[in-house]
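Sample intake — Accessory gene regulator protein AgrB
Collected from: Sporosarcina limicola
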Amino acid sequence: MILTHSQSKQRLFGLVLLLVLVSNFIIYRLPAMPIPADSSGVVLGSLLDLAIVAPLLILAMTRNKGFTIKRFITFMVLGLVAARFIIPATYFEPFKFIPYIAIGIEGLIVLAEMGLIILLMKHLPAIVGEIKNDQVSSLFAFPVMVKEKVSTHPLITMIAAETLMFYYAFATWKQQPLIGESRFYLHQKTSLIAFNVMLIHAIVIETLGFHWWLHDKSMVLSIVLLVLNVYSVIYFIADIQTVRLNPLTLDENHMRISLGLSKRMEIPYTAIDRIDWGEKASMCNLKEEGIIDFIARDFEVVKPQCVIHFKRPLKAMLFLGREKEFVAAAIRVDEPESFQRSLEQKLDN
């Protein structure tokens, strides 16, 4: 198996993290390494390893998720709590107050996050009112307004994404798909909706059968799986509605494109470097790093009809509001010829 450079670094950081934890565990338990009478220096060294070094190593291993003070503090608190179990009580006695201080800090952070949630609830009616008066789809407008009026905190972003899911699952059934010269659907000539409906049926059947069998074995586990299955059904229903009601739209200055709840993007025309069409686009490797695809899932393998290369990396919003930068977008629409004419016309203006 060939490891990438990134995977090799992750394994290296993981190995160092394991050495840090193991060394701090055995130093207090090996007769060959006696602890001096004044053990405060050794304990302080272990606390620094577990509260500073270990969290930094974990952040380095998961650097693709980004470095934030919140994540560092969370791992620091976990490290200090773990220290209570790694360091024997005899040596830890003078420092037993430290984990409680760390837990208190984490509690303050949780309270601050709850305050942000309350702030979101306060601004929610005004945000919904503005979206109703706006011509932009709520799929794109709602997250932007939440960031502007409330916060860019990851927790708020995730709650906004979940709010959109419940909105599309339960509150959009009377809405009709938008039709126009500048709107192009990605799913109508594919089996995407049928595929999602099939998944919903499979989950419902599995829930009805497996849940009752598991209920006699473990009530807690059966309830957890039931909640997860209900969430999955709601997600797939919302995904169907999102695809059905949000076609690719060519506005005056940029393109808005989405594929369900899992990915969406705004592409300014000024950020487009070049566009590959037809045969050249179909040769694009969709697994290549930095390429996002907006191709509806089908029962057979389909190729992109268009690959848009950007002058600079552009952000796309993914599942649960996570953002990631891409250098190109591979697209497949129901009416490729009409889409090509319309897009080229927008670029010429």
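Post-analysis note: The chain has a mean pLDDT of 82.
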